[in-house]
Design goal:
single chain, alpha/beta, 8 strands, 12% strand, eight-stranded mixed beta sheet, elongated
């Protein structure tokens, strides 16, 4: 099957490579021409240097997979494609778009007879080798039509992918997936910090993580990755404790509030990421000042 991959970054590039290795013809376009040229030379990609050129490289129905950052980059790309494509062509958004945007885009494209799938993709840098987990929102018939693409990208033809609901559902499920990921990561981080604080035990954190990898109820792929990180440097001396968030954790918390669903673990995990970015907490300073005012408790001066 022929497919156009728009966005050849780390994830999109690896997905294109996996499709090519499975026998699909992949046309690639990236806004940096050098990236497209390099993949064409090394990986057998058919190079396109504009959306217009990509759209004209094969007859319909055409399949365009968009792997660009969520927000304006995705919006402008999808809207540009809507002017280039024809009835029965398909646009797949495999980025981390907000599910509300995906629902809106699907309606706009449907007016032109263009099909839309929102595909939440998980797998990260390991996806090229291990395969990708894909949560798909859209029409049943279109998902079935593109089955060979999803089977090629997944860990196995019958594992790790599936249609989860109508348009918007794919990105909604991926949003919740990432919210859960926040909570799991935070729990591991806190647990290892508690163990590190007990200095009299002189715990080998890497060794403990290896023990937990086998037979333990807390074993997981995240633990495997944690073990790899600790093997390199248990002190993590070259890493700042500054943690970004992609936005999906925030959206998960917003949706929990909108649906009156208590989600304290995911919410606190998100807030801890905000804490990690503070060089100095004004709130903590004020807490110290209040304790000093009502109880005469000592405060540490800024130069101490």
């Amino acid at each position: 099957m022929q497919i156009v991959m728009i966005g050849l970054g780390k994830m999109g590039g690896n997905m294109a490579r996996r499709l090519i290795s499975a026998g699909h013809k992949v046309i690639g376009y990236n806004n940096t021409p050098e990236v497209t040229e390099k993949m064409a030379a090394q990986d057998g990609l058919a190079a396109a240097f504009s959306l217009e050129e990509a759209a004209g490289m094969f007859e319909g129905p055409r399949v365009f997979w968009v792997m660009v950052p969520a927000g304006e980059p995705t919006e402008s790309t999808v809207m540009a494609l809507s002017e280039l494509l024809s009835k029965d062509d398909v646009i797949i958004d495999g980025g981390n778009s907000n599910f509300n945007d995906s629902m809106r885009r699907s309606e706009l494209l449907a007016e032109k007879g263009i099909h839309f799938l929102d595909v939440g993709v998980s797998g990260g840098v390991w996806g090229l080798k291990e395969g990708y987990s894909m949560m798909i929102g859209g029409e049943v018939e279109i998902v079935e039509q593109l089955r060979s693409i999803f089977e090629s990208l997944a860990p196995a033809a019958d594992k790790g992918w599936g249609r989860v609901g109508p348009n918007g559902a794919g990105h909604f499920v991926k949003m919740v997936h990432n919210g859960i990921e926040y909570g799991l990561m935070q729990a591991y981080a806190e647990g290892f910090e508690i163990m590190k604080a007990r200095q009299d035990f002189d715990l080998d954190l890497h060794g403990i993580s290896e023990i937990w990898q086998h037979g333990s109820v807390v074993r997981s792929w995240l633990l495997d990755l944690t073990t790899d990180a600790l093997a390199e440097d248990q002190e993590l001396s070259n890493i700042r404790g500054w943690v970004a968030d992609s936005g999906e954790g925030r959206w998960t918390v917003f949706e929990a509030i909108n649906q009156d669903v208590p989600a304290p673990v995911i919410t606190m995990a998100l807030l801890q990421r905000f804490v990690s970015r503070q060089e100095e907490s004004y709130a903590a300073k004020l807490l110290a000042a209040m304790r000093n005012q009502f109880g005469g408790h000592a405060v540490r001066k800024a130069d101490e």
